[in-house]
Amino acid sequence: MEQSTYPRGGQSRPQTAAGRSWVIGPLGQPLTEDCLPVAGCSYWTPRRKAEVVAAVNGGLLSVDEVFARYQLSVEEFAGWQRAVDRFGMPGLKQTRLKRYRDIQERAQQSGFAAMAA
Question: Name one GO molecular function term (predicted).
Answer without folding.
Answer: sequence-specific DNA binding
